[in-house]
Amino acid sequence: MWIHREIRPVLEAEAGKRPVVLVTGARQSGKTSLLEMAFPDHGYVTLDEPLEAEQAEQSGAEFLERHPPPVIIDELQYAPQLLRTLKRAVDRNRDRSGQYLLTGSQKFALMEGVSESLAGRVSILELHSLSLREIERDRGPLDRRAAVLDALWRGGYPEVYARDLVPSRFYSDYVATYLERDVRQALNVRSLRDFNRFLRLCATRSGQLLNMNGLAGDVGVSPNTIRAWLSVLEASNVVLLLPPYFRNLGKRLVKSPKLYFLDTGLLCHLLGMRSPDAVAESAMLGALFETLVAGQLVRAFANRGLRPDLYFYRDHHGNEVDFVVPVGGRAHLIECKWAETASLGRGPAAIAAAFGQASVLSRTCITPSKVSTRTASGLERLGPVDFNWLLPDDPTT
């Protein structure tokens, strides 16, 4: 069963303008299926097969002769040397769009080569697991708390929905495969037991300020090791490190970020939650819901082909805003609360006092059943999963 992906119009538009399109994202997020569905007349080859990867690395020209454009080349990270050959092939026919459609699951190993070899020739898109909007199209409206809890517990990996899989079994296999294939290859992790403990401790901290020294002490490894492991999780689209909001851009680079998992199904599995009821009874329910909203905001940007421009705010007096979406010198302020009678709290007023009332474009409170937004014109918008109104106009329409 195919589930419509919101990024598809952007993907098709970019493939009509650029000779190369690279789709990155976490494993099992649906990159290959999306490309095959959108471009059924393209050839296909995967570098997940060792013989294909070896030839692509050592004899790139011969490999491309065997797989002429237009072609989908899957799992490019297994043959990074192919990028130089691709550059030469593209430059021979630079005006031909959609020649090579690439996927890659490891941005940390891939992006340096892409920026060096394919600068000006490639469009890079990120595909995440399913958004709540995409799940709604498949399963119906998420207009009840029970439906939101179920979606939070299941997460967004397409295979869970397409095959109606038991989430705990899917995520158990996912974690094992991820540990063995991606992390071990990237960092030569000596103790998978330590890394597994690290993953689960990160899960308990989703929605919290990141304290690398504290995390290192709990895992029993050095802060540098924690930093390296987090870089892999971030580059693999498993976690989001959300920076604090400051008018001074330099300060954003040196203050502690907040840690979020980008898929709540994986998060719930790591926390040992085996049912929506376990989620509902958890002391972490508020943090889980905040994590869900963070992931949806990231998807709203990515599905438009945009990099997430997203922050949090916290001042020295403890005033907080969960998410800040800047637009020029102004900002949308977003708070999320599981309680139906939640209020915005003191954070938005603190930002308005610090930066001026005119700097606030809107104040939004998200609950499981609705989003209530007030702007300077008094506008109120409803709809628990639609964040596209925050973004610029869709460039494909």
Produce a short descriptive summary.
Helix content is 44%, strand content 16%. It has helices at residues 8-15, 31-38, 50-58, 60-66, 82-91, 107-117, 132-139, 145-154, 158-162, 167-187, 192-204, 212-219, 223-235, 249-252, 264-270, 276-280, 285-302, 347-355; strands at 20-24, 43-46, 71-74, 100-104, 122-126, 208-209, 239-242, 258-261, 311-314, 320-327, 330-336, 360-366, 371-375.
Tell me about this structure.
With 397 residues, the protein is an alpha/beta fold. The protein has a domain at 8-126: P-loop containing nucleotide triphosphate hydrolases (Rossmann fold, 3-Layer(aba) Sandwich). The protein contains 18 helices and 13 strands. It has a five-stranded parallel sheet with strand order 2-3-4-1-5, sandwiched between helices. Strand 12 (360-366) and strand 13 (371-375) form a beta hairpin. Helix 3 (50-58) crosses helix 4. The protein is globular, with a radius of gyration of 22 Å. The two termini are 27 Å apart.
Please name the defining characteristics of this protein.
single chain, 397 residues, alpha/beta, Rossmann fold, 5-stranded parallel beta sheet, 5-stranded mixed beta sheet, 18 helices, globular
